[in-house]
Amino acid sequence: MNAVLQAPEVRLESMTLEHLDAVCAVETTAYDHPWSRANFADSLAVGYHCQLLVGPADEAAGGAETLIGYFVAMKGVEEVHLLNITVAPAFQRQGWASLMLDILAGWSRAQGAQWLWLEVRTGNARALQVYERQGYRRVGVRKGYYPAHGGREDAIVMSLRLDAPASAWAGLPS
Questions:
Q1: I need a surface site. Which of 68, 74, 128, 149 has the fewest CB within 10 A?
Q2: What is the pLDDT of residues 34-91, one digit of tens each?
Q3: Residue 18: what are its φ and ψ, rounded to 5°?
């Protein structure tokens, strides 16, 4: 008999101010330079696309839903800019970031966007691999974009063309 793997039931939910304690708790465990509560509150106030990926309630944690990850994206004219995507450390390396990127790409297409943009720290090799596997291409560098211990760190600017199949990128420098 073949074993059947059971994936946890997850769902997407709009982020609200009531979620910010849990979001900030994940943010501070995931990053050396986390977004502040005010960054998230401001993103909600201006109407950015802020989504949570939540799993089933954890009885060991008092029955609260499990926050797997979240993202914040800003819609522009024919483009969407991913401002923050985070997977809780306990759920990293399980494919959740790729799932959220797919969800964001679908939403972006539905909004009429032709491009998705993001910045990533030059030293974040794991994130770079995830983005490149999803079809994002390196298009530039922002010098000193991120705060870092003892200075600033450059960002790699990446984009994903939404109005063309991935094969349209074939042969282009990455």
A1: 149
A2: 999 999 999 999 999 999 999 987 766 666 789 999 999 999 999 999 999 999 999 9
A3: -65, -20
| Angle 152-44-72 from CA coordinates, rounded to 5° | 50
Three-class SS state of 17: helix
Distance (Å, rounded) from C-alpha 52 to C-alpha 21?
13
Nearest CA to 133 out of 106, 115, 164, 158 is that of: 158
The pLDDT of 3-23, averaged and rounded, is 83
**Which of 74, 29, 31 lies closest to 51, judged by CA?**
74
Given a contact cutoff of 8 angstroms between Cβ atoms, the answer to whether 86 and 70 are in contact is: yes
DSSP 23-71: HHHHHHHH-SSPPPHHHHHHHHHTT-EEEEEEEEEEGGGTTEEEEEEEE
Sign of the Cα torsion 139, 28, 105, 112 reads negative
Neighbours of 146 (CB within 10 A): 18
Directed axis angle between helix 37-45 and helix 20-30, to 10°? 130
Q: Bridge partners of 146?
A: 153
Active site residues: 119, 131
pTM, 2 dp: 0.85
